[in-house]
Amino acid sequence: MTVTAETGALTRPPSRTQHHRTVKRELSETPHPAWVEEMIADLKPDWDGVLASPVFAGTVTGGVSDETWKAVVKEFFCVVEAFPKYMGVYLGRTTYGKHPGDLLARDWLIGNIRTEALHAQWFIDWGVSLGLTEDEIIDHRPGPEVASLYEFLWSVSYRGSLAEAFGAVNYAIEGTTGDWTEAVMPAFKERLGEDKRGLMWLAEHAEYDDAHPREALELIKLTVRDEDDRAAAKEATRRSLELFRRAFDACLR
Length: 253
Prior knowledge:
mainly alpha
């Protein structure tokens, strides 16, 4: 509780939910400087490369089996389960206002980690709806392609700058996931019918707007330190996109 200077009355601090909404308002899209426009353009082939994976194109046309998607769920569970942990690592490297952008980055990460709380269970529910057991998903050891993505995201979270981490984890992975889930969602609605539980993870990623990648891009802009950090953030994002594409393609084999 706080006391207002004007009236001396007690007032409550803003609630956690209200504060998260304030953080999101403060991350509304701003005009991109030239280096960001260049980064987006340079990364477009890699972004489009993820979406061009035969896994997604084949699903849209009905040419990809449930067996392939079972492989996707088993392979990628480690990344989904680790996602809030990645963010927790670079949350630990933010400050309370010592560097420009850090306070907003800190509060956004806290809120975003909370939104991830049920995503691992929803991902499991999706796999179960396809015929897998929970143990098959949880106990699966990923192949080298997904393992490389998993380890790279850990590495950039620990060793990269904040801008590199936001680029590789939030902008690259969340951004393209919003796009590919939207593309395959109609096919899964047809396959799974009224199984809302089985569709929840897909629906959450396919039906929200582009807030997370847009906000991640704003956070890159806010936390990047210098020209070298700009280049490092772009290359970390590119590497994440490259590994994401390879990991999906491997699920077809």
